[in-house]
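pasting for the record
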Amino acid sequence: MVSARCKLAVKEELKKLGLHFILVELGEVDIMETLSKDQLEQLKLALLSTGLELMDDKRAILIERIKTTIIEMVHHSDGESNVNFSDFLSKKLDHNYTYLANLFSEVQGTTIEQFMISHKVERIKELIIYDELNITEIAWKMNYSSVAHLSNQFKKVTGLTPTHFKQLKDKRRSPIEDIGNQQ
């Protein structure tokens, strides 16, 4: 579950099934009832019909929590934080970063760093399109050490400079759910 739209879909399916939830967050649901096997199967099918899946594998859940943490940090926070990401992730998920990084790479076929860069570049595209901040302000907001660092990373991922991207008529963006997933 990686977007507000996903959260709404999950809430709707829970309501249809008559289930009461305490919390529906990105990648996490806390249901008041203890589900029977039948209810669990109904929930799985309902979520599948909306393009989502119920995860009960501990490794898959951990991968989803890594993704959700990155998405929240990149897309849903004000940025401007000088926190070391690997330390933050280790603390938040209560696992050694090396373990998290190895698991993520093994399952996703990409590194946590590449996944995060893909999301940062997509967020930069969004900020460029909004045209409320200049590139220097975007670099600062997205925690880049310099405009040159942002520009180099943006060009490496998109093949365009941020300035060239801003000039394009057809600004191609990707849905959050598709970013960083191997095609």
